[in-house]
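User:
Care to share a sequence and structure tokens?

Assistant:
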Amino acid sequence: MGFLGKQIITCIAITCWLAATQAEQPPPEFNRLNWVEISQNRLSTQIMFDFNEPVHFGHEIVKEKHQLHLTFPGMSLHAFNPQHVLSKLEQLKSKGLIKNVEIFEQKGSVPRVVLAIEFASTRCEKDTHAPTKNCFLIKWNTLEHPHRLIVDIFLKEDLNQITKNNAVLLHAMNDATPCDVALPTPCTQRIVLDAGHGGKDLGAQGYFGLMEKNLALDIAQRTHKLLKKKGLKSLMLRAEDKDISLLERSQLAYQLKADLLVSIHVNSSGSRANKAWGIETYYLNGDELVYRKGTTGFLFINMQKDADLIKRLDQCIQTSVNQSKQLACAIQKTLLTTLATKKIESNDRGIHQEKFRVLLRANVPAALVEVGFLTNHKEASRLSQQQYRTLLAQGICDGICQYLAHGTK
């Protein structure tokens, strides 16, 4: 065999080897599941899936079997972390909401993971162990930045509460001016204060060795005392320096039957070279939680499809967002006014919408306030002083009081 013949055979062999090697390589993955969490709020039981990239999926409803099949392209079984998902969804099986869950991979040029959830048609009551017919609405939404899929399970009895009236929500609040407002008597609202971070989670750190977890707790405690002096029902998610996860915070707020949630934090610009300073307050961005074609779906279990009910759910969500905005506005305004009355210069960074988990899960009027920057020398110096932290607590307290005075019947 000549030189040319050997070269041709070598090229063919290399080509065959490359083809075989490439065939052994798994198809490309485009996404990965980070975690799944189950939580409870006043309106629903919620499953939250957090992904590495934007969520794209197909869905199939097998109504007669009470099944919802979600198909995730660009994901392998390994990337979906099935053991983690199954262990979390097991909680819903024990509650009688889910009968069975399967996770499997569909092979092809692009991998696909299928999550098949069979919802339980009946559940046993804890006291009597008698079977009760499950009647609920399943709703799913996708979010971007962060990339999440949220599945809500609304029981019929909770949906009836929405239908009769919006008792779980506060009514629209009129514009208020900073003043010593008169609270409704009696004021039965349960105000829950969330001091950010805690324990091993230090939060922001800055000048003078200050740590966010300590300052947030101190300001929350001062706010709590001021609210109690006014005869209000104030409760704290953490009253000491301890670890408490975001999921635990939302679950505790639910257990405390919160009517109002205020989360207190201290800001950081990430670098002391950045001179950012000032106060800003956040409320929930609910744009992606209401019905949107292509990103929202529904499944009725043992219930007739009801378009009006879906509209009422959207109205309920929007009302909660509107009330959260009013609460955020009130707190931001009274904080700045409180400092101004003491001739302390402040920087109004405004109110903003966000999709923080503590706000996403609240389902009651909720706001998250950032009272200043630890990475700004002047503001950190103020935050280190007890008198200044008392003023901040007074501003937050006044904002809550104004909201309650103008936002309840």
In short: The radius of gyration is 26 Å.
